Amino acid sequence: MRNLIEFLSRYNHWFLFVLLEVASLVLLFRFNNYHGSVWFTSANAVSGKVLEAHSEMESYMNLAEVNEALTQRNVYLEHRLAQLEERLAVKMSTDSLAGKLQNDSVHYRLIPAKIVNNSIDKTENFITLDKGSADGVKKDMGVVSGTGVVGIVYLVSKHYSVVISVLNAKSNISCAIADRGYFGYLHWTGGASDIAYVDDIPRHAHFKRGDNIVTSGYSSVFPAGIAVGKISKVYNSPDGLSYRLQVKLSTDFSTLRDVCVIDDNDMLERLEMIRAAQDSIRPQE
User: Fold this and answer.
1) Backbone dihedral region of 18: left (phi > 0), alpha (psi from -120 to 50 degrees) or beta?
2) 120, exposed or middle or buried, with CB in 10 Å at 0-12, 13-18, 19+?
3) How far apart (Å, rounded) are the C-alpha atoms in residues 231 and 247?
4) CA triplet 233, 224, 145: central angle to 5 degrees?
5) What are residue 282's phi and psi, to 5 degrees?
6) Dihedral sign (CA 230, 232, 237, 240)
7) How many CB atoms within 10 Å of residue 143?
8) DSSP reduced 3-state for 63
9) SS3 state at 89
10) Which of 262, 215, 224, 204 is nearest to 72 (CA)?
11) Cα gap 174→176, rounded to integer Å
12) CA 98, 77, 165 angle in degrees (round to 5)?
């Protein structure tokens, strides 16, 4: 306490100076219109800059949530577009009862997830997600991003799941040439992470470079119309009986962060029926 009193007594003239300066500035800006307007303008400019910086920082912090929402919306719109194109084709080709009864309702839900581990430089690449059985994720569910197909759920724990990436030699996804109807199977053979191949396209198929490749809907994993990529080159199959298409993948696996797991009860039911049928025809030991 004594030190504080000594400090105040030693520098009392400085404190008095600061007090008088503040008082004079208050009187100057309060009772002089010109100086008051200058102060008001300057203060507004400074506070505006501060608020602008705060807003930019807040926007940056919210980018993850925005990106997650956009991913879900893109997946939804991709599927709706495919359904509308299919409905239009049916309407233009026939007015049959089958066309009228076509159901374009969206009967699945999307489980948003973030990638916590991803590899693209191995022969068999896997992706780890931060969602598991506690979030509704199950084995054999399809995984997509806002730009296209990502892979299929392979292993599930309570809070995490492992996905067989499209960039995996064991990946095998049924695909079709959009608006053409011809389908084959997507394979990755290693090398570039943006190139894969669709095999078993029939020789009589009509298509061209640049045509879109989408999921066919014939599998029990992905609904029809999810983007896969575009045809970049065409080859003959080794036996010469079909075409092999080189596909430029629409998903950039090197920058992938947000994905959605497709929870489709109808597809899971069909998958269980297929498995039951396979088990029933296996020879009894």
Assistant:
1) alpha
2) middle
3) 5
4) 75
5) -70, 140
6) positive
7) 26
8) helix
9) helix
10) 262
11) 7
12) 100
225: left (phi over 0), alpha (psi -120 to 50) or beta: left
CB-CB neighbours of 84 under 10 Å = 12
Please provide residue 20's backbone torsions phi and psi, each rounded to the nearest 5 degrees: -65, -35
Cα–Cα distance for residue pair 268/272, rounded to 1 Å? 6
Instruction: Please give the C-alpha separations between residue 109 and each of 72, 135, 256, in angstroms, as whole numbers.
Output: 10, 12, 21
Rounded-to-integer distance, Cα 259 and Cα 273, Å: 28
How far apart CA 232 and CA 211 sit, in angstroms, is: 9
Q: Which two tokens stand for residue 51?
A: 């608020």
Instruction: Give the phi and the psi of residue 205 in degrees, each rounded to 5.
Output: -70, 145
**In the 3-class helix/strand/coil scheme, how is 194-252 assigned residue by residue?**
CEEEEEEEECCCCCCCCCEEEECCCCCCCCCCCEEEEEEEEEECCCCCEEEEEEEECCC
- The tokens describing 100, both together, are 């009228």
Measured distance CA(71)–CA(191) in Å, rounded: 27
pLDDT tens by residue, 160-182: 999 999 999 999 999 999 888 78
- Going from the first residue of the chain to its last (285 residues), give the mean pLDDT of each consecutive group of 10, the final group possibly shorter: 67 71 67 56 54 59 64 68 61 41 55 91 92 92 89 93 94 90 90 92 89 85 88 87 92 90 72 62 55
Q: Which amino acid is at 218?
A: Y
Residue listed under structure tokens 């239009």: 88
Write out the DSSP string of 151-182. EEEEEE-SS-EEEEEEEETT--EEEEETTT--
